[in-house]
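Journal club prep — side note

Before the paper discussion, L.F. wants everyone to see what a predicted structure for a comparable chain looks like in C-alpha cell form. Sequence:
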Amino acid sequence: MELQKRSLHMEEPRLHASKQVVLEDNVIIPDTNKDADKLLLDRGKITIEEVNSFEDAVTVKGKLHFRVLYLTEGNRDGIPVSQMEGSILFEEKLKMEGLRAGEHVHGKAVLEELGISLINSRKLSVRAIIVFHATREEMMEEEIPVALSGEEQVEYRQRSVEMATLVMKNQDIFPIKEEIEIPGSFPNIRSLVYWDAEPVNLDFRILDDKIAVQGELKVFCMYAGDGEKEELYHYETAVPFSGSVECPGCREGMIPVIEYEVESCELSIRPDYDGEERILFADLGIRIFYCIYEEENMEMIGDVYGISNEVEESSKPITFRRLLTRANGKCKVSGHFKAGQEGAGIYRVIHTAGDLILEEQEETENGIRLSGQIQLQILYEDSNEDKRYGVICGEVPFEYLLEAEGMIPGTISFVQPQMEQIAVSVIDTDEVDVKCVILFRGDLFVTWEEQVAEQITLSPLDLEKQSSLPGIAVYRMKDGESLWDIGKQYYVPIETLMQTNNLTSQEVRPGEKILIVKSCLK
C-alpha cells in the first residue's frame, strides 16, 4: 500500500525580530559648499547592503544617506541656498531565536525620525531613529497525501481543503527612467541646486508571466537659471509611468503580496533636441519583494480504514493558509501649522515633503487597526526678501480601521500604506492648512495547522474484534453519522453497503435503517 502525494510549496513558520536604534554622528560640510546659516529641508533614506544569518542571530549592514537644503550665510546677491549630501554607516545585530546559520532573512529598515541641526556654519549634527526588522521567510516542499494505491482492500475518503499555495517567492528591480522637459516659461538650467523625486500611487497587477507596475513619479527641483543674472527657480510636477518585471510562471488571477522600497534615485540635466539644457532625467530603481499565491481546493486524504487489514496511520503537522480578503481603504487627515518664527510672511508654498510612518498595526475582530503619523516639511517663499525661504515642520497623526470580515486568531496581514495626496494652502501670513489622503491596501491570510498522513501501515485483522461482530445486523442511522462511519466500524466497503441497501448515493438520513451482512466482511 502506497500513499500518492503531491508536492506543494509552503512557507516555514515565520521568525521575526525587531530592534530600535539611535544613530548619531557629526558631519563636516564639504569645503566646496558655502557656509550654512539655517537648515530648510532634510531627507533621509536607509540602504541595506548586507544581511547575514547565524545561529539565533542576524546582522544587518548598510548606511543612512541624507540630503539637506540650507540657507547660505551672508549671500545677498547670488543663490541663497545650497545642498549637501552625506552618509553614515551602520552594522546592527538582532537576536532571532530558532534561526539557523545560512538561512535566508529579509531585512528591512524604517526611518522613524531624522533630526539634523547646525552645530556651526561648517558642521551638522545628525540623529536618526531607525527600526530594523528581520524576517525569515523560507520556502519548503511539503508532501500532501491525495490518494492510495495497491492491491490491498482499503477504503479511503478525500476531503476538500481550500488553501493558498505559494507559487513563487522572489525579488526584482523595476527601473523608472523618465525625461521631463521644463515648461517654456522657465529659463534653461545652469545647475541643479536641490531636488527630490519619489514614486507615488504605485499599483501592481499579476499578468501572464509578468507583474505590471504603474504609478506616478513626483519630481521637485530648485535650479540656477542660465541667464546673465544668477537667479533661483523651482519646478514641481508628477508624470505617469508604467511597465513590468518578468515573472515566469505567474498567471492572471493569482494573488500577489508585494512590498517595495526605492533602492536608487538620481536626477540629472540633459539637453533637448536644440541642445539647450531643459530636460530633467530621473533614474530610479524600485526593489520589489513578491510572493505569488494561487487559490485552490485540494482533494487530500482525510481518513482511511481497512477491509481485510488493520490500518495504522502516522501523521505530521502542516501549517496551511488561505486568503481571507484583500482589503482597501482611504483615510483623510488634516492639520493647521504656524511658521514658528517671528516675522514670517508666507508668500507661497513651494514644496511639501511628507513621510508616512506606520507605528502600530493591531489585528481586531473587525479588521486591522493602523496608527502612525505623517511627518511634514513645508518649504515656502517668504515675503520678507531678507529671508527668501522658510520651512514649517509638523506631524499629522492618523488612526484607521482597515475593515475585514471574518478576522480570527492566526490571521497574517500584509499592509503597505501609501501617501496618495498632500494639499497645502496658505490661510494667513504665518499659517497653513494641510490635508492628506492615505491609501491602505492589505492582504489578509488565515493560517491553521492540521495533522496530515505521512505513512500508512497495514497489519493483520484483529480476529477477536472481527469475531465479535454480528453475522447480520440492521443499523439505525444517528444524527451526524454517515455510511463511512458504518463501513469503518464493521470493516465493510462503502460500495458493498450501497449495493446491499439499493442506495444510489452515500447520502443517508437520521433514523434510516442500513442492512449489514456478515458475508460482506470477508
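L.F.'s comment for the group: The helical segments are 463-467, 483-490, 494-500. Keep this in mind when we get to the figures.
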